[in-house]
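Homework help thread (please don't just give me the answer)

Our assignment gives two proteins as sequence + structure token strings and asks us to describe the second one. The first is just a warm-up. Here they are:
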Amino acid sequence: MSTVQIKSLFTRSIYRSINGVIKADQDDAESVWQELDEYVITRELDQHLRSFFESYLAALDNPQDASGRVGVWISGFFGSGKSHFLKILSYLLENKQVSKDGEARQAIDFFERKIADPMLAADIKRAIAAETDVLLFNIDSKADSGDGRDAILRVFLKIFNERLGFCGDHPHIAHMERHLDDLGKFAAFKQAFADASGSTWEDERDAYHFQVDALATALSQTLGQEIKDADAWVERFENDFSLNVESFAKWVKEYLDKRGKDQRIVFLVDEVGQFIGQDTHLMLSLQTITENLGTICGGRAWVLVTSQEDIDAVLGEVRASKANDFSKIQGRFKTRLSLSSGNVDEVIQRRLLDKEPEPKDALRKIYREKADILRNQLSFTNTGRTYKAFTDEDNFAAVYPFVPYQFQLVQRIFESIRKAGATGTHLARGERSLLDAFQSAAKAVSESNVGVLVPLYRFYPSIEGFLEGVVKSTIDNAASNPSLQEFDPLVLKTLFLIRYVDEIKGNVDNLITLFIDEIDADRQGLRNQIEDSLQRLEKETLVSRNGDDFFFLTNEERDISREIKDVDLTSADEARELGQLLFDEALRGQRKFRFPDNGKDFGLNRQCDLHPLGNRVDGDLLVSVISPLVDDRDTWSEQRCILESSQGEGSVLLRLEDERDLARELRLYLQTDKYITRKNDGTLPHNTKRILQDRAEENRQRRQRLSTTVDRLLREAEVYVAGNKLETKASSAPMLAEEALDYLVRNTFSKLGYIQHLSSDPQKEIQAMLATQQTPGLGLESTGEANPRALKEVSQHIELLAGQSRRIVLHDLAETHYGRRPYGWPEWETVLLIVRLMLKGEVSLIGNGGPLAPQQIWAEISTPARWRTTEIQKRQQVGSGELQKARQQFKEVFQKIAPDGEDSLYNLLQSSLANWESEFKQWRALAQTGQYPGLDDIDQGIKLIGKLKAAPDSFDAIQLFLKERSVLLDLSDSYGDLDNFYSSQKTAWDKLGAAQRDFQPNRPKLEKDEKAARALARIDEILSAKAPFNLIREGEGLIQTITQINDGFLKEAHERADAWLDKQLAKVNAELDDLQASTDQRNKSLLALQNLRQRIIKQRSLAHISQMQDEARDLADAAIDHLHLLAEQAAAKAKAAASAPAATPVVSGSGNPGVPVAEPTAQVVNTPAAVVAPVVPVKKRRVVDAQLLAGSGYIETQADIENFLTKLRKELEQAIADNQRVEIR
């Protein structure tokens, strides 16, 4: 059998022409004959045929119940044969007759030998006995791009119209043809059109816009109606045509009724799911069409459609709501037939791989001998689904030379490549089938002897012609690359085929399985070949690597990979990222180490390959990691590690073992991350974005691998601490670090033992001591003190710093000095010691600018963040003589008895100054507005108080208080004046200022009165005085004096304005009387003047009252002009109404919608003119300004008189001539 060629195994020639791709519009006799003759009815298809014809016959037998059963949804994954099944149903329903070599057969004849069940055969024959119109079409190829939401309905109507011989491209023209056909005048119309145009109607109707006149002439002759404006008629007819689903269904029913009660029509629509896509409106349109055809046509109109079963493949990445909409549409189709991938397997085996009994027996024998070998040869690792090898000898004989997993895998390859967009539109539209692919692969090994298997790369030629240029050129160029070998393009092809199949990983083990090309292939030899090839391909940037998995790169992916490799990195970049992996991930972000003996938290300084990570803090513990990436790796021997860990104050040094792929993986991770961050923006092409997203996902996985690797290396690291190599027992990286740091603290902090007894809760102990102000065991040498050596150490250190005049901050002592080597004391233990010294009187705690009393201290030190603002001072005391002087001075300044004792006096002084400061600041806010006095005294007081409060302690504060005696006494006097002013005199002051502002508008008039002028000047003096406190009492009398005079001036002005307003009202009333105005018109004309009177009454400004007199005249003029305009408009309307007769058009015409009619005619009916009421004539008004006629403004001579009178006469005569009235001003 080993010398038998594979091509001799098959029943039919492997080289024969097989139409693997079924197209709805491919209906030549030879193709139809082959489709019918070779169509394989699998077990699945047998069941689908039964289901369909059961539903179809049920509708024939019970037409009254068929309305909801007329939809059939045929679904299936890419390449499952659904389009072929749809086409076979069309042949059967039509019982299509086809001829070949002189022999004629009907469709049912081909199936009599294919269908074993006589009942099914009888059902098919009965179903096809009725007369049926079969309309098979691919909806995508028939639709117009601009049809929008009506796209599906318009395609259905187009196909239906074409079947009836009507126009397919223009539904309104088809509607006209249908109407003419219903009238029995279609033939006459076509003849009339031919006579008018010299061409046939069928040749011209698709471009009817160029034959509008001939169309109008033919319609006029046919229908006996005159069409005057052909262009307008055609445009109106097109615009009036309305298309909806119900009308379409009615037209189908009318057609069926004409053909007889048994007539059927079936619409078979291929790839409707792909056409609908994400458009919910198209989904609903298909649903409505199916429902209406079923309801209106009573089960005689059917709709069969095909769609991808994979909804995501059809709809793209849709939201759940839209996916649900799609399932609702499918639910409207009662009969749903789903073709599985198993159906494809069976078809390929029976059409392509069917073998005679003798070769089958020989193949069974081979399997029995090689079964174990085949199981080992054909295994996968890390697959997301089960890809089967041979199940038994019959399975081997049936599918040889292929492997069972290839049926699933090749289908997934077709689907995934099409989804990823790596092919052109042909593969995307199903123009390449699985049957073609398997035939092509079988032909490639057909000359080989039995024993050969088909490797996966043999399927590449079946899609090569449909690949995008960038993909194909990548593989083609690899074949001519001098750096590659002949085997390398085959690896590249294989990696491309599985590039988008998520379930198959491109690792070496899987590639070996995919490359098995004979039963006894050498897997180890293949492994060596493939590994060497992958190295060459990766070097040429034709493939990328993610861990153990390899991926095919397109041209664009390859360019991006090259750019990623060219990204510059420094050793510091790599060390920093490795440090992040070590410290933030493996050591879980540890920044502190808590020493278990005293609970002290030690900060950590971290470095990787001698590069610091983060900010270095003096005194923190150093943890240093030496990785395989360090530049001088070979020099880091055990001796150097011991020496390095002993430098300075000692450190922890962790030396990691070598790791082959760490440097490559880390560098590629950093380069990729840097590249994506820099490159990724919203303007990139879609394909580039997808590649970057893929790279980002690969990098995420790479980061996870790096994290796992680093964690393992850290757990297995050599540990060196303070010049010693440490043997640890830790089982995790954090535990290893804890053990090393514990050893470091115990061996490098020499005064850690000074704290012999830790407080169980130092914070509570501090609060208790401050509350009782008791300090048991304060003697530094006392045996009762818990930690006498520590207390003495702190006391001596503070005394040393004070002697050097250095600033002593609580934070510096607690966290820095005593928290670091050689002490390592817990911070709160140090604070507890300092509080003990404070209560003994040795030191003071300074906060907020002054010494803190015991009851204030806890609030200032309760949180470590405030320790930076808390200072420590050695106490300095005031002498008794100076203290007595300070008490006396305090009494003189504040008028209070001062207490005994330095601290008590100091505290009272501080609180008294604070009270003064608070009040000064309140007064200052008012004085700064410029409306109140005392700003200079207030500012001086605030400045002095601030100086006193800023004294660092009681000693300095009391010394400064005595020094500023004279200034403080002056300030005390100022304080008394200001306090009296703001508490008692402010109201009178505000009243005086308000009066000054109120009198300001009338001040020019008031200053002409001697008494008022004096009062105004005195008010100004008081308000501008620096110390007006004793003058404010004069204010009330001054205000009364000015008010009395001001009110007199206002009274005179109001009376003049009122008289002038009365004059203007009288003038407007006279015009209203002349025009016989209505009450409403009178109110409107006088309203503005009446409102002005109210404003004058309220006005307190003499100048504004004078201005309002001018406003009154302007309002009167405007009212009169408006009245004259209304009168003129009324006269014009009356005149027009008296002369013009009214005309009412009466239109007559056809009321039959949808039928062409001639233009309507109009009749005019005259009506008598309306009776118009007379309008009161009115003369226009002319205003003559005498002052303007006077010229220079003065009349001084007889000639000036004559000149003025001449001009005036001329103006008056012209007005009379123009029939105008004159108003002289």
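The one we have to describe:
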Amino acid sequence: MSFPEFAIRRPVAAWMLMAALVFFGLLSLFSLGISRFPDVTYPVITVVTQWPGAAPEVMESEIVDPLENVLVSVQGIKDIESTMLPGIANIKLEFYIDKDIDAALQEVNSKVRSVRLPTDVNPPQIFKINQDDNPIMWLAVTWDKPFKNLVRYVDNHIRDRFMLVHGIGDIQLGGWADRNFRIWLDRKKLDLFQLSPTDIRDTLQAENLELGAGYLESKTNEINVRVMGEARSEYEMRSLALNHRASGAGGIPITGVGGSQGGGMGTTGAGSNQFLTNPAMTSAASNLLSNTRGASSVYLPLSLVAEVEDGIMDPTRLSRSDGKAAIGLGLQKLRGYNEIAVAREVKELVKELKKELPEGMSIGPRFDSSVYTQEAVHETEFTLLLTIFFTASVCLLFLGSLRTTLNVLFSIPISILGSFIFFKFLGYTLNFFTLLALSLAVGIVVDDSIMVLENITRHKNLGKDPRSAALDGANEVSFAALAATLSIVSVFCPILFVGGVVGKFLSQFGLTLSIAVLISLLEALTLAPMRVAEFLNVGGEERRNFFETWLDHFFWKFAAVYKRLLALALKKRGIVLILSFSIFFLSLRLFPVLHKELSPSEDMGIALIRIETPVGSSLEYTGGRVRFLEDYLRKQPYVAHVFSSVGGYSGGQVNFGALFITLTPRKERKLRLQEIFKIWRKEFKKAEYQDLHIKIIDISQSAFSSKRGTNIELSLLGSEYSVLKDVSQKILGELDKSGMYTDLDTDYREGMPEVQIIPDRDKCALSNISMQQLVDAVRYSIGGGRQGMYTNEKDIRRYDIRIRFIPEQWREPRDLEDIPLWTNYGGEPIHLKDVASLRIVPKLMNMTRENRRRVITLFANVKPEYSQARALDYAMEICRKYLPPTYTVQPAGASQTAKETFSAFPYALGFGIIIAYMVMGIQFNSFLFPLIILCAIPFSITGAILFLYLSHLSLNLYSGIGMILLMGLAMKNSILLVEFINKKRFEEGLETKEAILEASYIRLRPILMTSLATISSAIPAALGLGPGAEVRVPLVIVVIGGILVSTSFSLFVVPCIYSLVSKVGGKPPIDLEEWLQEEKVSSY
């Protein structure tokens, strides 16, 4: 029993099938997430290790080498990139795209824990990184109170509120400074009391403790005993007693002025008299020394030598919102969640918080990528509705009956809603790729219904009753419908084997479209004939208005003209074939002329500018230069908001900054994004910006790489930095001369000033000072050394205690010379200059290795008028020209993705043709007929190339998807033609030429209907309206051009080829039902 027969005989089952697809499709739709691109997990893990004060070369030998030695054995690693900065080592492990990132994380964690690192190295931190984890929104919080008050309020009242929003996974903090309890030492006061920074550290170790001391046990109770020795307030911390030296002198007490212990303050001659007459000495200290003269020891509170403050850590980053100091909250969405719904909930929470904020505080979004996502998704949804309207118009035009047209259109909601069921189980979201696939599927899913209903109508016109017409008409085209649908599905099969990010994107498009057309096939072979048999009067009794009659008459006259032209073409088939294929080969000459790029730039209404100030610049200087750029940008009429951040990324280097720019809505500005970029690049070439490295980042390209986001990224690998440096400068010069690139730069930076302290070991030994004491004294003087924890009882927060000189005492290198180290037994203080010398040397700011080889990476953007593929090939050629033997170049980031894409499409096209040939060979039971059908493909490529060239569009990821889709669509029409010619030849016994003419005449109408339906479904997207049009247009232009040209040529070329090779044609396809019946009879 065939599918149409089953549905006609059991209509209730068919109705239940349709109801199930609609009902469960709607349920699935409401639970699907929404995002701009498919949720693709970039399998990247970073291992970050901190060793404060260590130079990059020390980080390389002591941290990176031992870690890499064990990490290389982790399965599935594609690349290892290590970056060494002062005090920080970052090892980035990139795995192949199909690697289970959670399993990899466990394996990496196990390997890292097995390595023994130096004892004072902070434990390595391991993170998963995903490009989709970029914040969907940046909120800015500003207040006109001191910054530490803002930090405290955000920490206590705001941050956790956003973490509770459904769908928020994490929050990045811009301009943030962790809360710290600060002990600000005064070096001059330390000298007065002959103390060193390590004495303060030792006091905290001894006096600021909270420990369990055991427990009390009776017959009935057990009570814990705890010594609450931690300071609970600023007052308690100020009162800590500086009574003993815990290191270096065996615990010698700090004594009174008249005491006799050499390690303290016992000598008055050169001691107290000098201190008492020192004008810098406080009155409290003077009174204390006077009142304790001759005492064996004194009580010295911490407040005599230091100020204490419940504050924040030393700033290493800052943020501003429209010129005001701010804290930025970067909200990261969990994978699979609805980006638009999450952003909506965040904005509702912002409205609530505004009612609760203190006077003078404000909060609001300053950078919101969800706005573009929402606009692009809504535009695609509108395009989908417009597509349905256009397709319905074409169907009505050709079918001439509103009821028959509605029957055809039933396939659209059933196919789309049925696809959502599979989305739910596949974990897909409603994104650009899946929605565009559904939009294009609208014109394809109606093809099978058109084919079936048109043939049912033909049978009814032969005088059959509705049930017989429905059954015979549907059965007659079942094979052609199955073959045509499988031809589309088969061309997307190779995409499943394409690796990398592009493969993930393509697979979602291909699977979505394949699922939709397979459901439409099921609908066409079951529900459509059932509805005709049950409800619709498809016979001649139906009234036809004047327009329908005229249109029908016009079409058959057109078909008659086509039949005469085809007869002429068959007589001159050699000339027709030579001319046709000559046009195809001539069109290939346009292929090298086309611009080739990974993806067109989209005007998202947002932009990112990264800047880098000279090596060694301070946070204050970088902040000032960022403010200079802010001032320029805020004056531009097309800029709505500017949110800036300094430091806090790329290892927390304070000479790096980023500006997140939100532009005014597209309807309110005349300039498009690329035009604005051009204005900025011209501005940034002026003299006042020459000390800055400025990169303008197109955020629309960020989804294709986990790197920096420039068009061109090339890694130069070798063994010596000096060679790589020289070569990279030569390459940059050549690339600049070519005129194809902007934003040329490398990641190599040298000249980082470093103050090196050179101890004199003899002097240290005579002064009883160890290297550890010297290092600790410097660290707790200028490094903000941590010592213990402080608990704020008001808001129950616990944070680090940090010791450091007051800021004005560690501005210049010479300030280091006066760091107090110890007091000798003669009572004289010893300073750093007494036992060590200083020197300032330039050093590398960072060192980078890739796959255990040293690397310098080149960065550039390609000018809009040049092809990315050509620019990449030229850059690779220049690199190979200058690199010495054993030194290599390889694409990185977006360049690597582009290379993978450019090589993946020929593979996908070639293997798609092979798989389609195999499928059709099985269906037609012939080696020859599939080859005839495949002859339509070259002309679809001709149409695609020609329309891209005339439209001044590039060959990119999206137009490549259109090419793959086009193969299936081109074969679909040829299948209809060849299958019907075979019926006329092998079933009705017509001669080859007569069969070709008759079949072509009869099938012209459904071929034109299906082709125009597909074209009409692409027209709304081709209009280039709304957000996301930049990437939709190339795809649909390829489809429109390819369908137009391939349909026009295949209507003549395919019959001519069939006629030419018919003498060696294979057998017709075997009817499966007849074959099974024959086998059953023969078995008896």
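TA reply:
I won't write it for you, but here's a hint about the kind of observation we're looking for: Residues 717 and 855 are 5 Å apart (CA to CA).
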